[in-house]
Amino acid sequence: MFKYLVKSLTNQNCIQEETKSRLKSGNACYNSVQNLLSSSLLSKNFKINMYRTLILHVVLYRCETWSLTLREEYWLKVFGNRVLRRIFGPKKGQLTGEWSRLHYEELNDLYSSPNIFQAIKSRIMRLAGHVTCLRERRGMFRALVGKPEGKRPLGRHRRRWEDNIKMYHQEVGCVGKD
Predict the structure, then answer these.
(1) From the centroid of its chain, how far is CA 14?
(2) Which region among 35-39, 42-46, 125-129, 165-169 has the lowest average model confidence (pLDDT)?
(3) Predicted confidence band of residue 142 (pLDDT cuts 50, 70, 90)
(4) Domain extents for the chain?
(5) Separation between Cα atoms, residue 4 and residue 59, nearest integer Å
(6) For 60-108, how does the pLDDT look when each residue is reduced to its tens digit (9 = 90+)?
């Protein structure tokens, strides 16, 4: 593994190290503004804007090329929930009066912007749109539509970037389109 332009590259084409390093950078950014996010002097809108402009951009840098597995999705979800819980704080129960953590559904209701997965999906779909408009001479287009030579290793094949694009198209309802 080596780093090139702040991106971790491996010979296995595995993004696990890349997502770990992005989450590590995001944690460093989160820890530097943690006191501001928990401050009662700042409005929630300001804190959400800080999350979207500072922390989320650090974590999602170059995420357009990622092909996420369930493990990476889980760790990104944990990271996003932790930051949102810091912003919105605990909730007080109406009947018992006890304080408790906000659950995932409650965080999504309070946070009106797209969550971290929707942001990744929209960035991937935007890049896919740009790549499909490229000419055949361009390297990105050839990498997307090209078929590599050789044999695949034994076992289940990894989910490719192209497979994610097809899956996202089905989620949106664009089935049957190239």
Answers:
(1) 16
(2) 165-169
(3) low
(4) 2-113
(5) 17
(6) 988 888 888 888 889 998 898 888 888 887 777 666 777 777 777 777 7
- 3-state SS record for the chain: CEEECCEEECCCCCCHHHHHHHHHHHHHHHHHCHHHHCCCCCCHHHHHHHHHHHHHHHHCCCHHHCCCCHHHHHHHHHHHHHHHHHHHCCEECCCCCCEECCCHHHHHHHCCCCCHHHHHHHHHHHHHHHHHCCCCCCHHHHHHHCCCCCCCCCCCCCCCHHHHHHHHHHHHCCCCCC
Average pLDDT over residues 49-56: 91
